[in-house]
Automatic annotation (TrEMBL):
<dbReference type="GO" id="GO:0051301">
    <property type="term" value="P:cell division"/>
</dbReference>
<keyword id="KW-0131">Cell cycle</keyword>
<keyword id="KW-0436">Ligase</keyword>
<dbReference type="InterPro" id="IPR036565">
    <property type="entry name" value="Mur-like_cat_sf"/>
</dbReference>
<dbReference type="GO" id="GO:0009252">
    <property type="term" value="P:peptidoglycan biosynthetic process"/>
</dbReference>
<dbReference type="GO" id="GO:0071555">
    <property type="term" value="P:cell wall organization"/>
</dbReference>
<feature type="domain" description="Mur ligase C-terminal">
    <location>
        <begin position="312"/>
        <end position="425"/>
    </location>
</feature>
<feature type="domain" description="Mur ligase central">
    <location>
        <begin position="116"/>
        <end position="290"/>
    </location>
</feature>
<dbReference type="Pfam" id="PF02875">
    <property type="entry name" value="Mur_ligase_C"/>
</dbReference>
<dbReference type="GO" id="GO:0008360">
    <property type="term" value="P:regulation of cell shape"/>
</dbReference>
<keyword id="KW-0547">Nucleotide-binding</keyword>
<comment type="function">
    <text>Cell wall formation. Catalyzes the addition of glutamate to the nucleotide precursor UDP-N-acetylmuramoyl-L-alanine (UMA).</text>
</comment>
<keyword id="KW-0573">Peptidoglycan synthesis</keyword>
<keyword id="KW-0067">ATP-binding</keyword>
<dbReference type="Pfam" id="PF08245">
    <property type="entry name" value="Mur_ligase_M"/>
</dbReference>
<feature type="binding site">
    <location>
        <begin position="118"/>
        <end position="124"/>
    </location>
    <ligand>
        <name>ATP</name>
    </ligand>
</feature>
<dbReference type="InterPro" id="IPR036615">
    <property type="entry name" value="Mur_ligase_C_dom_sf"/>
</dbReference>
Length: 449
């Protein structure tokens, strides 16, 4: 069990149980901290509530009593809880620090940390880095916004292991001292403004990934993202750029035939299984991080010649009578769908729609040239139908849900076409998560067989 020897707080409120809150509460209790746990949805009968009480926590469920902050010197909140939450807002008024459990995990682990963030591509890049290190026989664990909770993972890690963390803006906003030895900043565009309120707030949360780095650390960044390239000029870490359009002898890049890290050939482009220019960006970032943390060229090669994508991220599902089905349910915003569409040249049937956050879809227009038909669903169905009419897509079907959309798309499809689920919207109008939406798509495709 790792000890919180340098953690400067003793009386702590944990807001929200779920997995991250539970892991944080257990770690704090194991380190003799005084904690109060609050979760509006929990009940007295929940196993987690019973266990935490037995361990010595004060657990408050149901209402939002502001008095939960009395005598406390820190709040650890679930990343999904907004800063408008009454308890969080009051903590800010009282100048009580607010962090997420990523900060706590940092205090519990002394080994190398590879942090990955960006508006898109986090999960793919995190998975690539982890697999490249594993195939190179480098001890490594993966946690954060993917897989296991970071605070839980570090409890059983050795200091010679590398920890790869997928990090959301929600998690990074709640950090103070967090310092990855290798940071990856993939891209930034307008997203999650319902949470962060302004684009500036969102960017600053993302930039927290390198704020505390030193000259001994590495910052891998997208040289083609102007906002990032400008911001990293003030970084103290060693800068490692990547680009798919320019030669970068200090970083990762490609020419018309090969992938390079600095001036070393890594792999021939035609041998890479993963499709899409945006995935080439993810690959370059992953190669840089892997090489800087002990990966071998052989290990990297083994991953890139076999890895075809993670679930719900431009995941190839099946070839049915010459129709290629791809599940990109993770595309919860317009940029992600742009990149998915640009990954294909052949005629495509696009399945899109979901939660209406007030967005218009005008930015999709230049990317719809090879889209022959659309099947739309959810709250944004009417907006997407209007978009199709504006760009001259004549075949548009409105479906009840993703499952019906699969059957509708197949019924109008032709051989050698792509049927792509890339919703450009969050799933919460019909599905609890984008994973659930993607699973429904995959199941519907398999039923066609």
């Amino acid at each position: 069990m790792k000890r919180l020897t340098e953690f400067p707080y003793s009386n702590i409120v944990v807001l929200g149980l779920a997995r991250s809150g539970t892991a944080a509460a257990e770690a704090l209790l194991a380190n003799d901290k005084t904690i109060r746990v609050h979760d509006k949805q929990a009940t007295e009968q929940d196993e987690t509530v019973i266990r935490l009480k037995e361990m010595g926590a004060e657990v408050i469920i149901g209402s939002h009593p502001i008095s939960i902050l009395d005598g406390m010197d820190l709040v650890i909140k679930n990343p999904g809880i907004s800063y408008d939450n009454p308890i969080v807002a009051e903590a800010i008024r009282r100048d009580i620090p607010i962090i997420t459990e990523i900060e706590l995990a940092y205090y519990l682990f002394d080994g190398p940390i590879i942090g990955v963030t960006g508006s898109n591509g986090k999960t793919t890049t995190t998975t690539l880095v982890t697999d490249m290190l594993k195939k190179s026989e480098r001890p490594v664990r993966v946690a954060g916004n993917i897989g296991i909770v970071a605070t839980e993972a570090v409890q059983s890690m050795q200091d010679d292991e590398a920890l790869v963390l997928e990090l959301s803006s929600f998690q990074l906003q709640g950090t103070e001292k967090f310092r990855p030895t290798t940071a990856i900043l993939l891209n930034i565009f307008e997203a999650h403004l319902d949470y962060h309120k302004t684009l500036s707030n969102y960017k600053q949360a993302k930039f927290n990934i390198f704020r505390n780095q030193t000259k001994d650390d590495y910052l891998i960044y997208n040289a083609e993202d102007k906002a990032i390239a400008e911001e990293v000029k003030d970084a103290r870490a060693k800068l490692i750029p990547f680009s798919v359009h320019q030669k970068l002898e200090a970083g990762a890049w490609i020419d018309d035939k090969y992938v390079y890290f600095k001036n070393e050939k890594i792999i021939e482009l035609k041998e890479i299984v993963l499709v899409g220019e945006h995935n080439l960006q993810n690959i370059l970032a992953a190669i840089a991080a892997a090489k800087l943390n002990g990966a071998t060229n052989e290990g990297i090669y083994r991953v890139l010649t076999t890895f075809s994508g993670v679930e719900h991220r431009l995941q190839f599902v099946e070839n049915i009578n010459g129709r290629l089905f791809y599940n990109d349910s993770k595309a919860t915003n317009i940029l992600a769908t742009q990149k998915a569409l640009d990954s294909f040249k052949q005629p495509t049937i696009l399945l899109a729609g979901g939660l209406d956050r007030g967005n218009e879809f005008t930015d999709l227009k230049p990317h719809l040239k090879h889209v022959r038909a659309m099947v739309v669903f959810g709250q944004t169905a009417s907006k997407l139908k209007e978009l199709a009419a504006e760009v001259g897509i004549e075949k548009v079907i409105e479906s009840e849900n993703v499952e019906d959309a699969v059957h509708a798309a197949y019924s109008i499809s032709e051989e050698n076409e792509v049927i792509l689920l890339s919703p450009a919207c969050a799933s919460w109008d019909q599905y609890r998560t984008f994973e659930e939406r993607g699973d429904m798509f995959v199941q519907a495709v398999h039923k066609l067989m």
